[in-house]
Amino acid sequence: MMISVEEALEKVLGCVDILEAGETPLLESMGQVLAEAIISHIDIPPLDNAAMDGYALKASDTPGASDQSPRILHVIDTVIAGSISQHQVTPGTAIRIMTGAPVPGGADSVIRFEDTDEARRQGSSSGEIGILCEVKHGLNIRRAGEDIARGATVLKKGTVLRPAEIGVLASLGMSKINAVRRPVVAVLATGNELVQIDQPLPPGKIYNSNTYSIASLVKRYGGVPKIIGIAFDSEASLLDKLRQGLDADMLITSGGVSAGDYDMVKDVLASEGEITFSTVRMKPGKPLAFGTLKGMDGNGNPRRVPHLGLPGNPVSSMITFELFARPAMLKMMGKKNLAKPVVEAVLEEPAVNTDGRRLYIRAIVTKSDGRYHAHLTGPQGSGILTSMSLANGLVIVPEDTAGAKAGETVKVILLGWDDEDNI
């Protein structure tokens, strides 16, 4: 029975769970989800420090200071970032200070170089500096703990790690974190017609492109691809290859799910596990099989491995991955926002729907005059892989319509948008 896209996605997501957490090197954690809250054990910054290059002084020494009437202070030291002055600022004194250096004892403000007469004193060894304006208490001082206070919750459990969060964790001195691990996705192509890409191409054969587009999508969305290779059109070959992927968190095959004499993925899926659905009301991507295979975990205990049998045509394979495999992977990683953004756009060319399935049409989405516009990439055959290369969006034509006319407003999935991290 052919089911809707929504029904199919619900069944896929209902079969996967959030994976366990593990220790992850900080620089390898991009896009992963924190498995525990991060509590700071230090203040950041650790000490009051200078926000500008200048002079640390007492504000009480500066009332009435101006260019015409500078207040002259005795310079008793210079302190740079990473060093601590051993001198105390007292009335009538100042310490030359660089940005980020701890504020010396006794000082309550920092005046920038530009508001002193330092430039006029170049080469002078008088040990004095003229203050050319009044200074407010606390000027140009970054207070200890103003960014992060000791004991504060810095990042909540469930936070997706982006470069900013990774920087925050580094500022806390954390080289490793506890995060939901990345899913391992086994990738298998099927078909006698396939040849590995590093081999000569015999007549009647094609190179195995699906493995590389699918494995790249797995990597793009944060998973770890495990490439199994090619299964030929025999039950023995298919079973042998499938069993190599049963230690993965998900197994994805391409090809072998339509109605041809040698399309046997569904049959093997049914005999080695169970099949949940095999056709979806969409184009491209109608022959899409999903179910589970019998496998074993690392301790030898029985487990069920989700298996998604994608169509063999390269466009169908990529689109069905985006709609079903991607959200399943994100759920495994502990993410909440599983859908890419959908915008409304003006369709620039007509799209015809003749067989009552939901169409996903490759398009180039641009924005002008405050509106999105969708230009079709050209011929929409499911074997035209370059149409995916050109596209940054998928125009949705509902299954209960005869199509959309040029100039109509349609919904478009933005393929180029990766902001699933906003949860």
Largest sheet: number of strands, sense, barrel closure: 7 strands, mixed
Instruction: Give the CA-based shape.
Output: elongated
Uncertain residue ranges: none
How many helices?
7
Strand order of the largest sheet: 1-18-20-21-17-13-16
Percent of residues in beta strands: 25-35%
CATH architectural type of the largest domain = 3-Layer(aba) Sandwich
Distance between the termini: 34 Å
Mean pLDDT: 93
Structural class: alpha/beta
**Which range best describes the helical content: under 10%, 10-25%, 25-40%, 40-55%, 55-70% or over 70%?**
10-25%
Q: Rg from C-alpha positions? A: 31 Å
| CATH level-4 homologous superfamily of the largest domain | MoaB/Mog-like domain
Q: Regarding CATH, which class of the largest domain?
A: Alpha Beta
How many domains comprise the coordinates? 4
Q: Can you describe this structure?
A:
With 423 residues, the chain is of the alpha/beta class. It folds into four domains: 2-19 and 182-332, 3-Layer(aba) Sandwich (Molybdenum Cofactor Biosythetic Enzyme, Chain A); 25-44 and 148-180, Molybdopterin biosynthesis moea protein, domain 2, CATH 3.90.105.10; 49-142, Beta Complex (Molybdopterin biosynthesis moeA protein, domain 3); 342-421, Beta-clip. The protein has helices spanning 5-13, 163-171, 210-220, 235-244, 265-272, 314-332, 386-390; strands spanning 2-3, 21-25, 38-39, 49-50, 54-57, 71-79, 93-97, 109-112, 128-131, 141-142, 153-155, 176-180, 184-190, 194-195, 206-207, 224-231, 250-254, 273-280, 282-283, 287-296, 302-310, 342-347, 351-352, 358-368, 371-376, 393-397, 403-404, 409-414. A seven-stranded mixed β-sheet has the order 1-18-20-21-17-13-16, sandwiched between helices. The chain has a five-stranded mixed β-sheet with strand order 8-5-7-6-9, with no helix packed on it. Strands 22-25-24-26-28 form a five-stranded mixed beta barrel. The longest helix is centred in the C-terminal third of the chain and has 19 residues, at 314-332. The model has no long low-confidence stretch (mean pLDDT 93).
